[in-house]
């Protein structure tokens, strides 16, 4: 009996062990083997500027090996030259190997959403060595971001899933200038896209009122206003020297006072109308005054005629 | 029998009266949400998201229904019946879905959005052509490059900003600068773990924006895994790739489109990633729990000019100083109330064909937006235009017509110093006439 119990226990332990071993083997089989990642070394990051000469031959105007990760001064790209960015990648891979990502990005310094991208070409430079080249032209930049002049930050990436550590570096500034468009007109920066302009705060502005009419200085106007009274002032002595007098006045004094008062009142009403009196109120007053002035004037003239006859 | 008929009549009439009364709260906050689960999403793999949705839906006075894609695709499923929608928001966690309620997915969901309702659309590397077409209708173009005999789309790769060296598991930090309208500041503090199919947004579409963009080192590979040199593929490289896109239609319907259903899964919700917070913010936004605005109480009054100061007039005069006020409120789903809007970038334009002036409102102590403007010296029929357009916030567009008249004949400047010589000449003439009359009449 005891022997039977011990045997059962042993069989049970064996079953458990077998199951555990099976699980371990199953887990090991499912484990993905670690990918073999290779180290890379990037050397000779160079920027060449090429230009076509008068004979139509492309020649290298300048060549700079980028040391310390940055250009000494900004490179220039315009309509008549080309930039060639090259680098050597030392990697333990067959000669026909091509990294998955070979990218040169030029990002505009101010309008950050505008960036031109170039995919590099690869050629073998011997065993375990690749040469990656990026050809940058102003025309290619224009096709991607329009005639956007200004400073661009340059970044180059060479990456692959097989690399232990992919390569990425920003190597300085490139100033792009598009001088003229195809129709000969000067190039201008492209307008912001619908999305760039849709959400931003718009510029405030006020309506510019029409400028006031030019007027003479106040002093000159006052001088001329004073001058306007000179003839009036001169009228009295000139009239007196010409023989004017008031000898006939006493004989028709009452009529004269009434008549001239009516004339003065008429002139006064006209001044009052100019100041504030409404037109439809002015007319009845003037009508009354003119009727009175006519009557008084008639009596005055009759009196003067009577005196003359006498 | 007669009593029964009367009761039925009362019920029917009562229902129609109730239906006619508009919802006093937001017309756009989701009240009935439908969640469709398909390939890549189950109640187990996306339990965190579903629980979060249900909690918020229940807390904000709504309901949520979860159905499987097979059931949702069937004709018997009433998504739309007799041109009436059974739901007011839709969360599609079913990249393989092709039909909804017996109708083609792209068409029916497009109509859904056109009716002012919101949708959250998730894709994957095995998404159906209907999901792609629907995304395109919303202004989002998914990258197309297929492997495995055309059954799977390639995923976005990033060899630099990724999780544990896996280029397809991107740690994205390219959050939109939306001032918290969509993604909160807390969500932006950590990277978003994202793996899926990239998309691009057309530059000429101002309605769509990238809530989360890829890094400059990311790219959508060809089927062989390389960067494409083809013309036009530049939009699937670098920061132009949109990982999570948001669309606010002109009728203020909202859509969120992403090519990664894994982003919403429980496996992505880790302490070092912001997936949980981003998912909550995105669903809050698309379901109308945040960033909904309404404008009311627009008024204008004279400050200085012809008329009574402080009074609203039907017609103003040129060069009058006017004060414009309005109130803008933001919906708070937590409080189920409209609260004063906090931002200070609201502008008003005074327009006749073209804007003649544009001014930014300032806020007074009561939270009312106030702007003082001067009417231009051009007369005509103008209008005050308030046009508010910011990423993540619903649009506000309001216009009010205001005629501006020129000066009347008696409102011009008088007694101008430059005219004094003319006044003097007239008075001088009057005086001369009077004196000359005297001399002519009485000279002997």
TrEMBL record, chain A:
One Pfam family from the UniProt entry? Ribophorin_II_C
GO cellular component terms, semicolon-separated: oligosaccharyltransferase complex
Predominant place of localization: endoplasmic reticulum
Q: Where are the transmembrane segments?
A: 219-240, 252-275, 281-301
Signal peptide: which range, if any? Answer: 1-31
Alphabetized InterPro entries for the sequence: Ribophorin_II_3rd, Ribophorin_II_C, Swp1
> Which protein, by its recorded name, is this?
Ribophorin II
Q: Which organism is it from?
A: Chloropicon roscoffensis
Q: List the lineage, top down.
A: Eukaryota, Viridiplantae, Chlorophyta, Chloropicophyceae, Chloropicales
From TrEMBL, chain B:
Q: Which GO terms describe its biological process?
A: protein N-linked glycosylation via asparagine
Signal peptide (UniProt feature, chain positions): 1-19
Q: Name one GO cellular component term.
A: oligosaccharyltransferase complex
Organism domain of life: Eukaryota
User: Per the record's keyword annotation, is Endoplasmic reticulum included, yes or no?
Assistant: yes
Pfam families (alphabetical): OST48_MD (PF23358), OST48_N (PF03345)
OST48 middle domain: residues covered: 312-443
| Pathway assigned to this chain's UniProt record | Protein modification; protein glycosylation
Entry's transmembrane regions: 420-442
Q: Where is the OST48 N-terminal domain?
A: 32-286
Q: Where in the cell?
A: Endoplasmic reticulum membrane; Membrane
Q: Which UniProt keywords apply?
A: Endoplasmic reticulum, Membrane, Signal, Transmembrane, Transmembrane helix
Membrane topology note: Single-pass type I membrane protein
Which function does this protein serve? Answer: Subunit of the oligosaccharyl transferase (OST) complex that catalyzes the initial transfer of a defined glycan (Glc(3)Man(9)GlcNAc(2) in eukaryotes) from the lipid carrier dolichol-pyrophosphate to an asparagine residue within an Asn-X-Ser/Thr consensus motif in nascent polypeptide chains, the first step in protein N-glycosylation. N-glycosylation occurs cotranslationally and the complex associates with the Sec61 complex at the channel-forming translocon complex that mediates protein translocation across the endoplasmic reticulum (ER).
UniProt similarity note: Belongs to the DDOST 48 kDa subunit family.
Assembly, in brief, is: Component of the oligosaccharyltransferase (OST) complex.
Please give the name of this protein. Dolichyl-diphosphooligosaccharide--protein glycosyltransferase 48 kDa subunit
């Amino acid at each position: 009996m005891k022997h039977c119990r011990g045997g059962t226990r042993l069989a049970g332990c064996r079953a458990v062990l077998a199951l555990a071993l099976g699980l371990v083997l199953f887990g090991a089989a499912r484990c993905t083997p670690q990918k073999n990642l290779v180290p890379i070394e990037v050397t000779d990051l160079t920027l060449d500027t090429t230009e076509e000469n008068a004979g139509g031959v492309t020649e290298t105007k300048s060549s700079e090996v980028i040391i310390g990760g940055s250009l000494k001064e900004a490179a220039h790209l315009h309509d008549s030259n080309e930039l060639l960015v090259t680098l050597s990648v030392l990697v333990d891979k067959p000669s026909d190997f091509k990294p998955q990502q070979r990218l040169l990005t030029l990002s505009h310094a101010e309008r950050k959403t505008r960036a031109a991208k170039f995919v590099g070409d690869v050629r073998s430079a011997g065993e375990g060595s690749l040469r990656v080249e990026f050809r940058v032209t102003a025309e290619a930049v224009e096709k991607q971001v329009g005639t956007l002049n200004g400073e661009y930050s340059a970044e180059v990436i060479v990456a692959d899933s097989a690399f232990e550590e992919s390569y990425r570096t920003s190597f300085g500034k490139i100033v792009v200038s598009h001088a003229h468009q195809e129709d000969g007109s000067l190039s201008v920066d492209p307008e912001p896209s619908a999305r760039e302009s849709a959400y931003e705060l718009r510029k405030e502005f006020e309506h510019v009122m029409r400028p006031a009419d030019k007027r003479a200085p106040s002093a000159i106007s006052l001088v001329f206003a004073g001058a306007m009274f000179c003839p009036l002032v001169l009228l009295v002595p000139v009239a007196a020297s010409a023989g004017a007098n008031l000898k006939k006045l006493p004989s028709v004094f009452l009529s004269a006072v009434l008549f001239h008062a009516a004339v003065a009142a008429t002139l006064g009403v006209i001044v009052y109308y100019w100041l504030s009196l409404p037109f439809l109120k002015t007319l009845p007053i003037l009508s009354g005054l003119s009727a009175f002035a006519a009557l008084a004037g008639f009596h005055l003239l009759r009196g003067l005629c009577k005196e003359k006859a006498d | 029998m007669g009593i029964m008929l009367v009761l039925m009549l009362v019920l029917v009439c009562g229902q129609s009266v109730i239906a006619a009364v508009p919802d006093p709260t937001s017309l756009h906050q989701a009240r009935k949400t439908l969640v469709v689960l398909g390939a890549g999403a189950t109640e187990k793999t996306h339990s965190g998201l579903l629980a979060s949705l249900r909690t918020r839906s229940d807390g904000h006075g709504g309901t949520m229904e979860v159905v499987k894609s097979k059931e949702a695709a069937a004709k018997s499923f009433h998504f739309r019946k007799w041109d009436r929608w059974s739901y007011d928001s839709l969360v599609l966690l079913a990249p393989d879905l092709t039909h909804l309620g017996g109708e083609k997915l792209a068409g029916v969901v497009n109509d859904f959005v056109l009716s002012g309702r919101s949708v959250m659309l998730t894709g994957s590397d095995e998404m159906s052509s209907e999901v792609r077409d629907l995304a395109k209708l919303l202004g989002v173009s998914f990258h197309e490059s297929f492997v495995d005999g055309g059954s799977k789309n390639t995923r976005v790769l990033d060899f630099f900003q990724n999780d544990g060296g896996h280029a397809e598991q991107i740690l994205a930090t390219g959050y939109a600068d939306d001032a918290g309208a969509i993604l909160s500041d807390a969500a932006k503090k950590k990277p978003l773990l994202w793996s899926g199919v990239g998309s691009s947004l057309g530059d000429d579409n101002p309605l769509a924006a990238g809530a989360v963009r890829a890094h400059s080192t990311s790219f959508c590979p060809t089927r062989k895994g390389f960067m494409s040199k083809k013309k036009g593929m530049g939009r699937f490289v670098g920061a132009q790739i949109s990982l999570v896109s948001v669309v606010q239609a002109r009728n203020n319907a909202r859509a969120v489109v992403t090519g990664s259903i894994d982003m919403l899964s429980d496996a992505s919700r880790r302490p070092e990633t912001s997936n949980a917070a981003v998912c909550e913010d995105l669903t809050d936004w698309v379901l109308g729990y945040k960033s909904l605005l309404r404008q009311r109480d627009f008024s204008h009054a004279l400050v200085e000019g012809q008329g009574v100061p402080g009074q609203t007039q039907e017609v103003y005069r040129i060069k009058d100083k006017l004060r414009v006020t309005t109130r803008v409120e933001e919906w708070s789903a937590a409080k189920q109330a409209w609260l004063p809007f906090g931002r200070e970038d609201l502008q008003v334009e005074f327009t006749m064909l073209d804007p003649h002036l544009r001014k930014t409102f300032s806020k007074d102590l009561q939270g009312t937006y106030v702007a003082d403007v001067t009417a231009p010296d051009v007369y005509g029929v103008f209008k005050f235009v308030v046009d508010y357009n910011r990423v993540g916030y619903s649009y506000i567009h309001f216009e009010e017509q205001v005629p501006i008249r020129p000066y009347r004949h008696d409102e011009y400047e008088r007694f101008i110093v430059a005219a004094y010589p003319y006044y003097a000449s007239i008075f001088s003439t009057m005086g001369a006439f009077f004196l000359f009359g005297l001399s002519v009449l009485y000279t002997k």
